[in-house]
């Protein structure tokens, strides 16, 4: 019997995003009274306890039975011979997730989820986005450094039948990114219904490292999403939705129910994406063996980091390598969650696979002395739960610019997660249009496996995080909690890059 997770534990299992004002000087944040009205007027103690009760018994995930081969997303083909034009269509369809039953789903260029888009650093790319849904949507390129007009935030909404072409030059390093919708107030439901896809960026460095790179064979994308299906095996978001984050009992990986992954005795690279609305995952091997992390959200770590587990909050990514040639494969082997739920069983063949290496040096990421000495110019305070979530005491207003920042100028943002009377929740904080560096967590250096480019970061209650961020392009960009229901409830702000 799996342990039930308490409200406090879920506080350590969910996340959020943030906002504020002024680029040249710090907007002062009065932590003592900024949310006084919300603390005492909007939510009294009984109400807060009732709201937290919604997470008192967070459902554990059903174990994967391993009866289905893991689906691997197709690679999106180019529209042209030069290989620089793509078409991405948001569509509604039906998918046989359960044998013999069709579930109504959303997808990109298909009925459920989307293809992988492979980009090369230095390429100029055009993507034609087409909305074939019967509702408005956007196409947000999560982690991609593009102009605000191409980023796909809520201002870039496409009505049913509309299309738009975006064009950009790929200037960032090799990384695993993703794309999903971002319409105001509807992001959680559209992602829940299936709108999500992957982006791989490759560069000369990634090709020279000798890492496992055979897509779908020893380089495996893994999109983790938990869902609740009704008695007709349908995704009924309105019934499942929770304002503090919708959590389900059924895990889908790449849209596959009860998946297993067949591998050879070789090093296998797993690109992990937490694509859930709210659930956090702590990935580990059921044998207790270690693995190696090689990349964060936005690129390779300088050196591989050996771990026995890794936690990802919604929207975070990590690349890990498991050496199946060195593991005891006589007994069952699986990737499991923190509570022991079986996420992905491995079926290891007796075949030796391709020989690949994990080099000792992979990148030249650094935090400069200048960046360490920069003053804090933006302070953000994340607070609240349910539909009473705010950044700096404010809810999202599409007409309000919370910050301004100069293009190409590095600034230090300080983000504080203010606890409430029940302790508070983890908030995953995401900034559009840029990759940032984590300077510190509560004044201390970040752990080794976070010393790389990031676009999303989990922030615990009463934790203060400092990041150094530079925007390479102009435009208006969102920053928010990536618990999608919190985002929809207004835990979001805007920075204008000039």
UniProtKB/TrEMBL annotation:
Phylogenetic classification of the source organism: Bacteria, Bacillati, Bacillota, Bacilli, Bacillales
PROSITE patterns: MULTICOPPER_OXIDASE2, PROKAR_LIPOPROTEIN
Record-stated family: Belongs to the multicopper oxidase family.
Keywords in alphabetical order: Metal-binding, Oxidoreductase
Pfam families: Cu-oxidase, Cu-oxidase_2, Cu-oxidase_3
Name of the protein this chain belongs to: Copper oxidase
Annotated ranges, domain Plastocyanin-like: 91-205, 234-328, 374-498
Domain of life of the organism encoding this protein: Bacteria
GO molecular function: copper ion binding; oxidoreductase activity
Protein biosynthesis is among the record's keywords: no
InterPro entries assigned: Cu-oxidase-like_N, Cu-oxidase_2nd, Cu-oxidase_C, Cu-oxidase_fam, Cu_oxidase_Cu_BS, Cupredoxin
């Amino acid at each position: 019997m799996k342990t039930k997770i308490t409200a406090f534990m879920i506080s350590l299992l969910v996340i959020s995003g943030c906002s504020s004002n002024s680029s040249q000087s710090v907007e002062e944040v009065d932590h003592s009274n900024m949310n006084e009205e919300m603390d005492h007027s909007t939510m009294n103690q009984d109400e807060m306890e009732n709201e937290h009760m919604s997470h008192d018994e967070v459902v554990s995930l059903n174990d994967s039975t391993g009866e289905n081969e893991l689906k691997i997303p197709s690679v999106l083909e180019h529209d042209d011979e030069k290989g620089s034009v793509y078409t991405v269509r948001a569509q509604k369809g039906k998918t046989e997730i359960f044998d013999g039953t069709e579930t109504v789903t959303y997808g990109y260029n298909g009925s459920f989820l989307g293809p992988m888009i492979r980009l090369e650093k230095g390429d100029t790319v055009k993507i034609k986005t087409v909305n074939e849904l019967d509702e408005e949507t956007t196409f947000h390129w999560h982690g991609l450094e593009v102009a605000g007009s191409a980023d796909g935030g809520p201002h870039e909404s496409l009505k049913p039948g509309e299309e738009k072409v975006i064009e950009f030059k790929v200037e960032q390093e090799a990384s695993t990114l993703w794309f999903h919708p971002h319409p105001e107030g509807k992001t959680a439901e559209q992602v829940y219904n299936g709108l999500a896809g992957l982006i791989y960026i490759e560069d000369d460095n990634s090709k020279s490292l000798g890492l496992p790179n055979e897509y779908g064979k020893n380089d495996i994308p893994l999109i983790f999403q938990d869902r609740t299906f009704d008695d007709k095996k349908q995704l009924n978001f309105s019934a499942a939705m929770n304002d503090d984050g919708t959590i389900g009992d059924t895990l889908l990986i790449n849209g596959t129910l009860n998946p297993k992954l067949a591998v050879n005795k070789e090093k296998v690279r797993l690109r992990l994406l937490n694509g859930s609305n709210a659930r956090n995952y702590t990935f580990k091997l059921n044998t207790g063996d270690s693995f190696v992390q090689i990349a964060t959200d936005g690129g390779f770590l300088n050196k591989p980091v050996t771990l026995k587990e890794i936690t990802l909050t919604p929207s975070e990514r990590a690349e890990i390598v498991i050496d199946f040639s060195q593991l005891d494969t006589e007994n069952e082997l699986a990737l499991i969650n923190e509570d022991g739920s079986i996420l992905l069983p491995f079926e290891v063949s007796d075949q030796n696979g391709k020989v690949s290496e994990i080099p000792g040096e992979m990148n030249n990421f650094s935090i400069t002395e200048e960046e360490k000495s920069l003053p804090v110019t933006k302070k953000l305070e994340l607070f609240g739960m349910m539909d009473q979530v705010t950044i700096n005491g404010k809810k999202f207003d599409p007409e309000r610019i919370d910050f301004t920042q100069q293009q190409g100028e590095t600034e230090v943002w300080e983000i504080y997660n203010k606890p409430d009377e029940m302790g508070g929740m983890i908030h995953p904080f995401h900034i559009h249009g840029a990759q940032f560096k984590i300077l510190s967590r509560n004044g201390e250096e970040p752990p080794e496996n976070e010393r790389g480019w990031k676009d999303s970061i989990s922030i615990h209650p009463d934790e203060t995080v400092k990041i150094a961020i530079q925007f390479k392009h102009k435009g208006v960009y969102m920053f928010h909690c990536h618990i999608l229901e919190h985002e929809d409830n207004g835990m979001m702000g805007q920075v204008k890059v000039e």
